[in-house]
Design brief:
The structure holds 2 protein chains of 2 kinds.
Chain A lengths: L1 H11 L7 H38 L2 E2 L7 E2 L3 H9 L1 H32 L6 H13 L2 H11 L6 H8 L14 H13 L1 H12 L3 H9 L4 H28 L4 H6 L11 H11 L3 H29 L4
Antiparallel strand pairs in A: 1-2
Helix pairs in contact in A: 1-2, 4-8, 4-9, 4-11, 4-13, 5-9, 9-11, 11-14, 13-14
Chain B lengths: L2 H31 L4 H4 L14 H9 L1 H31 L5 H13 L3 H13 L11 H4 L3 H12 L3 H9 L4 H9 L4 H17 L2 H6 L8 H11 L4 H34 L2
Classes of the chains: A mainly alpha, B mainly alpha.
Chain lengths: 313, 273
């Protein structure tokens, strides 16, 4: 590769002998760009260019086959004024996100604290808590689909043992979303656990020692040492979990297909159906940009609000 | 150790065992059900372990799935190898080479990656349809292999930590830039390469959305989508479904167990600092 590069540069710059520094610089530039050329080409072709097209497409009526028809902002006005599914799916996604984030992060924190204890076999437990995170959503969806079976499922079987008559779960418009949330939390909790575990292990033992000397109870040590020092980790988790929860798709697709009714239809599911089932590509692009606006503004707000509560040691 | 501490320790163990059981239960149920005759799968109270392990469910599944396993393995391999090559080359250049436009190029890559994939998914789909890539495997690896921005970022961090002396010594010995990258620098970043490989493998193996929108032909389908279609076909044969699900999960668990260290390292590395 090097010889190829220098051969190219000498041919292009006959003045190389008189200005070796310049030739060397040019050779450096070429080498550098050769190394980054695959990703630069990729990002321009598969991200940058499609982003521009998507912006333009959101202003058109387009099935993706015939030529697009410019309609100005009418996709957006239609979405806000004439598409009840938009509000339904936005609400369902918000419901999913608001329920799953505190549960995932909260339980993840609890598990991280457990796994930070010096007990034997801790790596087994860590693996057990983490295993669902790496398994695929289709297999998981299957298992839980049957767990939530109203009459033959394990969940209602266990509830029955303690005398509770369980609901219809996935075929009930009230209980389908909570059921999906349970599965999502079960699957996702390993990630915050690992992040918080790393955070816990990074807290210097000295801080706990000195808090102890000052007479802090173990609860006070958690309140005044552990939690403040973990706030950057919590901020990171809130931001990343929000971005991923707001784009949930797989579990919904496998477990409920958005039903019953539209009770578990989430934003991306609606977008997917508009684009690939109804062929409304321009409309779906507009939906995608609204989603982007929501994600970007919430992320920005989380970032801006951090100085109210995040503590950097 | 005092009695109180011993008690606390016992309590921690008890809590951890109960929780671990709860977390593993669905996976154990999947495995156990895959070995049961159909009539034993759904019983109340749940009958967890099969009386006589029935391996014929696996025989029936393996009859159907070799092509899906092959497709999944092929795509995972292309993605892992491709992303390692592209991200390590770019990461090396961004960390260790000086060239005009380097910092601007890096900023542009990072800025582009802030926009979620969903925002440009549709134009991508249309372009792939124009060039005849729908119902081929290309959309499932070419765009991914050529846009590993995050992996590049990780590789850049890794290359920055390699001491200058190593590079200087190689230069004195007359190594080319490519030689330095390939023989000197790359071996220094093995843990990060491993972390990226594990992540990429899992992403590719578990991907549902990509194959769902880009593939139609059954013989091109990957394991998760084929499995999702099994669901309709074998809805009443639960033990068969669970055998299929188990087959799709086992390689991932094995990879995870073997590469746990790198995986966790990768997560914590990507998370903070």
């Amino acid at each position: 590769m090097q010889s190829l590069v220098s051969a190219g540069t000498t041919r292009e710059t006959p003045g190389a002998a008189t200005d070796p520094a310049r030739a060397a610089r040019r050779r450096h530039n070429l080498t550098g760009w050769l190394f980054i050329s695959p990703i630069v080409v990729g990002v321009v072709a598969f991200q940058f260019f499609p982003i521009l097209v998507s912006m333009a497409a959101s202003l058109t009526k387009w099935d993706g086959i015939s030529s697009p028809e410019f309609v100005g902002l009418s996709n957006f006005t239609d979405i806000f004024t004439d598409d009840p599914l938009f509000y339904t799916t936005l609400w369902n996604t918000t419901y999913f996100t608001l329920a799953s984030i505190p549960l995932t992060v909260g339980i993840g924190f609890f598990l991280a604290v457990l796994c930070a204890q010096r007990v034997r076999g801790v790596s087994f437990f860590r693996t057990a808590f983490f295993a669902p995170y790496v398994t695929n959503v289709v297999a998981i969806g299957f298992v839980w689909f049957w767990f939530f079976h109203p009459s033959d499922g394990v969940v209602n079987g266990l509830l029955g043992q303690v005398g509770v008559h369980g609901p219809e779960w996935l075929s009930s418009s009230t209980w389908a979303m909570p059921a999906v949330i349970v599965v999502s939390v079960w699957q996702g909790v390993g990630y915050p656990m690992i992040i918080l575990l790393a955070g816990l292990q990074g807290i210097p033992e000295m801080l706990y020692e000195s808090a102890k000397i000052d007479g802090a109870s173990s609860l006070a040590r958690v309140r005044y040492v552990t939690l403040p020092l973990l706030t950057p980790h919590f901020l990171f988790l809130l931001i990343t979990q929000f971005i991923s929860s707001f784009q949930v798709f797989g579990l919904i697709y496998v477990m409920t297909k958005g039903g019953p009714g539209h009770s578990t239809s989430v934003y991306i599911y609606n977008l997917y159906e508009n684009a690939f089932a109804y062929g409304k590509m321009g409309y779906a692009c507009a939906l995608a940009w609204i989603l982007f606006a929501v994600i970007a503004s919430v992320t920005y707000a989380q970032w801006k609000l951090q100085n109210r509560w995040v503590f950097y040691a | 150790m005092s009695i109180a501490r011993l008690g606390a320790r016992a309590l921690i163990y008890a809590v951890m065992f109960v929780l671990a059981a709860a977390f593993l239960l669905p996976l154990v149920w999947m495995l156990a059900s895959s070995l049961k005759p159909e009539a034993q799968v759904l019983t109340i109270p749940p009958d967890f372990f099969p009386n006589h392990p029935l391996w014929s469910n696996y025989a029936a599944v393996f009859d159907r799935i070799p092509v899906f396993v092959f497709n999944s393995v092929k795509l995972a391999t292309y993605n892992v190898v491709g992303i390692l090559v592209v991200s390590s080359m770019a990461g090396y250049a961004f960390a260790r080479l000086r060239f005009a436009g380097r910092d601007i190029a890096f900023m542009v890559l990072l800025a582009t990656s802030i926009i979620p994939g969903i925002a440009y998914l549709i134009p991508q789909y249309i372009v792939f349809r124009q060039i005849g890539w729908i119902d081929t495997h290309y959309p499932l690896w070419v765009p991914r292999v050529l846009t590993p921005v995050f992996a590049t970022f990780l590789m850049r961090q890794a290359f920055k930590t390699v001491p200058n002396e190593l590079e200087d010594a190689a230069k004195i010995d007359g190594a080319s830039t490519f030689g330095i990258y390939w023989r000197i620098m790359l071996p220094q970043t093995k843990p990060v390469l491993a972390a990226i490989a594990v992540f990429t493998f899992l992403d590719s193996w578990n991907d549902l959305f990509g194959p769902l929108i880009y593939l139609n032909s059954e013989n091109l389908q990957t394991l998760p989508v084929a499995l999702a279609q099994f669901q309709g076909e074998y809805f009443s044969q639960l033990s068969l479904l669970m055998a299929g699900a188990t087959v799709s999960v086992v390689p991932v668990i094995v990879v995870f167990l073997l590469a746990q260290r790198y995986f966790i390292q990768g997560i914590t590395m990507t998370g903070l600092k």
